[in-house]
Write a structure and sequence with these properties.
Elements: H1 3-19, H2 21-81, H3 87-169, H4 173-186, E1 191-195, E2 198-199, H5 208-216, E3 221-222, E4 229-231, H6 234-240
Parallel strand pairs: 1-4
Antiparallel strand pairs: 1-2, 3-4
Helix pairs in contact: 1-3, 2-3
Length: 241
Amino acid sequence: MNIYVKELVALSKIDKALDSFNPQIAVINAKVEAVQKKVDDLLEQKDNSAKVLEDNKLKIASFEQQIASLKDQLDSIKKKSSEVKTEREISSLSSEEQIAKDNLTYANEEIDRLNAINDVKNAEVEELDGELAAANEELQTVSEAIKSDIAGIEEQKGKLFATRDESIRSMDQKILAFYEKIRNWAGNTAVVKVEKQACYGCYMKINDKAYSDLIKGEDIVSCPHCGRVLYIEIDSETAEA
């Protein structure tokens, strides 16, 4: 195998190893994100319950003001009732009194209804507080647990980056630039093996000339279909033949 191809194969394997850590980190972070979402959802539920309680508190205060006003109105009607003389005045005063009593009944019923809702919401908030405490404890536990996992991955990545830096320092910079250009679009399939005369990047069969040049190993050979750098493991090809 051409020395430059060997360098590219080795470099591509390092890059694949480096990129393989990304899904591992994503899985680790997903654990924290799942618990954090649980915490956020509980906080949102608690906030919604708190808003209902606050709104109901204001409504109850408003109804209590109405009750006080209605009681004053009824007291005033009672005083007036001793002063009215005509049937029309009595009827009008009686109608006003009935409306005030109906409004008073409604206000008291609404206060009872709102208080019942508040009892439920207060119980919900108390339950949510317990769930939040447990969720925050879980979040802290998971966060602490993944620190060592992340640290281990970062240590391995650091070693690979050091190896990569050492490798590219000794490489021909034109060949390195050629590799990086392909890697920009091909990712970790910039350098692929050939088996059964097929490129393992695009899975297309390469022509005889390209395959012959590949076996000779004198130059860097690119796939005529996709442009990836090709390499061949002679021993495995011979065994298959």
